[in-house]
Design a protein that fits this description.
2 domains, two-stranded antiparallel ribbon, 2 strands
Length: 189
């Protein structure tokens, strides 16, 4: 059992191995996997319900079609997740983890900051904050942060990530050996 286990190896290999050495291991194993099931279901409810509810609030005529939208969203999610159950799924999982979770979050954050500061307008945003907090926030600090510091730092992080791109390698774990991903995966990522 490796102390460096992380990600799915931690949840499905290391932690169950540790539980198996405890007293009442069956009870703790059942509780642990029920917790994982609850986490997965709650995430699925949030990922399904939030976009559908927001679309229903934006377009009132969409409300009558909500059940169809739920079925369509769940079906598409199911079909997209099928490749993760096939042999070699850990390689696909690593690709998604590296490219869909790391750089894309910073890019989305940059566009959110840009949208709030430059498109929606900082003054509108500060008025919204004042209404929510019922007091004036540190306007000069937030102005400098949103207009200058945050966009510059995010551009630096994105640029350094793009400059330092190397072919991705997964860490060997369990029955999976070290693997260097092909160049097309780096280009698509």
């Amino acid at each position: 059992m490796s102390a460096e286990s992380s990600g799915p190896g931690l949840a499905f290999i290391t932690y169950p191995e540790a539980i198996s050495h405890m007293r009442a291991s069956l009870v703790f194993s059942i509780l642990f996997f029920l917790m994982l099931l609850a986490l997965g279901l709650s995430s699925q409810f949030a990922l399904t319900d939030v976009p559908i509810t927001s679309k229903a609030e934006l377009f009132p005529t969409f409300r009558s079609k909500r059940p169809y939208a739920v079925v369509l969203t769940c079906t598409v999610s199911f079909l997209v997740s099928l490749p993760f159950t096939c042999p070699g799924e850990i390689y696909l999982f690593d690709l998604f983890l590296e490219y869909a979770a790391n750089v894309s979050i910073i890019v989305v954050g940059f566009f959110e900051v840009y949208t709030v500061a430059y498109i929606y307008g900082f003054n509108h945003f500060m008025n919204d904050v004042k209404i929510m907090l019922e007091k004036q926030a540190a306007q000069y600090y937030l102005c400098v942060t949103w207009y200058v510091i945050a966009p510059i730092l995010m551009i630096i992080v994105i640029a350094s990530k793009l400059i330092g791109i190397e072919p991705m390698k997964n860490k060997p774990s369990g029955c999976f050996e070290e693997y260097t991903y092909p160049k097309w995966s780096t280009v698509l990522g």
